Amino acid sequence: MSLGCPVIFTERASGPELIDNGENGLLVDPDNIDMIAGSIVRLLSEKELRDSYSRKGRETILEKFNIKKSAAEHLSLYRKVIEVYNQEKL
Prior knowledge:
This protein is mainly alpha-helical. The protein has helices spanning 15-18, 33-45, 47-64, 67-89; strands spanning 8-10, 26-28. It has a domain at 8-65.
């Protein structure tokens, strides 16, 4: 996804955390060979879909793994923890 490749991934494990099925990639049952094959054929035969998943997948990665956004969220959390700690000391 980070390189702009369309993705087919398992609907189990961490797949649904990054991939919205039908939006930025495809999620499949890893035990369903027909579903896997059908997804591969679909991406190979539908250029617009392939291009859309490539673009949206890359956008997803850039958003979810943005270091500046992540750092700001961590700093906000740390500030809240320090604030609660300081209030409890009083």
